Amino acid sequence: MFCGPEPEFFIFDDIRFGQSGHESYYFIDSDEGGWNTGREGGNLGYKITKKRGYFPVAPSDMLQDIRTEMLLTMAKCGVPIEKHHHEVAGGGQCELGIRFSDLVHAADYVMTYKYVVKNVARKHGKTATFMPKPIHDDNGTGMHSHMSLWKDGQPLFAGDHYAGLSQTALWFIGGLIKHAPSILAFTNPTTNSYKRLVPGFEAPVNLAYSAGNRSASIRIPLSGTNPKAKRLEFRCPDASSNPYLTFSAMLCAGLDGIKNQINPGEPLDVDIYELSPEELAKVPKAPATLQEALSNLERDHDFLTAGGVFPEDFIYNWVSLKMDTEVKPLSKLPHPLEFEMYYDC
């Protein structure tokens, strides 16, 4: 299996946060953020407003030179680089493009990627985060992951089925869709991950596949006629995850689909905003919370333990750790929005 991850991230100019028994707050700032159009002192305009950040040019894109330095630094560290650009969200969302590789090297590249991004940002007096949803009401940060299977030097995903896929590829998709509610406990392992997986932000909330619908969890890129370029893009993962666990879980799910010839159903080649509530309800959804994903993992993990890839003890320790150190503590905390909604009750 080859994997081509696409980690996204934000570059901010200021970040403050705190949590104690009597207060809870966070404050984010970005020089290019659309909320700064009225800022006094040194304001030169050209701000990027909500969802308007995809491929703007300078001077609206204030991060071109920093991204270039990040990419060239990664190349010096042995990561095969391809491109970089500003991403959809305003306020500093970016992506650097790296070349696909086998699972271990792809995961290695992600770790180097994150290290370089954070340190080059710091060098320039800025801060970078891979937190999936730091800004409310704008696009979140994912790690879309491209996958393709090969055998004896030949690609296995090209064929004469939907979108030029092979039957093997469709079964692989079937396994991913069936086990996505479980593997999201690894691919989307934080409580904040599920603030990203909500409708309206190009987020993959629908467990379906499509050649063009970016709300589907699995997209078939328009890669032309070259069979070597035929691949799947699993859009659920984010870069808060451990890439070694993420890519392994994705492969286990897909291989289980091939082994058991799991039918992925019909593609989601429709405008989901035109579907009736009854039609939309028939499309399976990604878990809405980390707790839901962990519960699914407890129930459905035989495909991960097959062949000893994931030890049984590891699965249960992962669920226990996440519940005790993340899910339960967060559920006990008052939220600032609760004061707005309920203080005068």
Output the number of helix runs. Answer: 10
| Strand coverage percent | 15-25%
Number of strand segments: 13
Tell the overall outline.
Answer: globular
Largest sheet: 9 strands, mixed
Average pLDDT metric:
92
Cα radius of gyration in angstroms: 21 Å
Structural class: alpha+beta
Helix content: 25-40%
Distance between the termini: 56 Å
Could you give the order of the helices and strands? EEEHEEEHEEEEHHEEEHHHHHH
Taking pLDDT < 50 over at least 5 consecutive residues as the criterion, the unreliable ranges are: none
Keywords:
345 residues, alpha+beta, nine-stranded mixed beta sheet, two-stranded antiparallel sheet, globular
Describe the structure.
This protein is an alpha+beta fold and 345 residues long. 36% of the residues lie in helices and 18% in strands. Strands 1, 4, 5, 6, 7, 8, 11, 12 and 13 form a 9-stranded mixed β-sheet that branches. Helix 2 packs antiparallel against helix 5 and helix 3 crosses helix 7. The longest helix has 21 residues. It is globular. It starts with a strand and ends with a helix.
In a few lines, what is going on in this structure?
36% of the residues lie in helices and 18% in strands. By secondary structure, the protein is α+β, with helices and mostly antiparallel strands.
Describe the secondary-structure layout.
Blueprint (H helix, E strand, L loop, with lengths): L1 E11 L1 E6 L4 E6 L34 H13 L4 E6 L6 E6 L2 E2 H21 L3 E3 L13 E6 L1 E2 L2 E2 L11 H21 L5 H4 L9 E5 L5 E4 L12 E3 L8 H17 L17 H5 L8 H10 L2 H4 L6 H21 L3 H7 L3
Parallel strand pairs: 11-12
Antiparallel strand pairs: 1-5, 1-6, 1-7, 1-8, 2-3, 4-5, 8-13, 9-10, 12-13
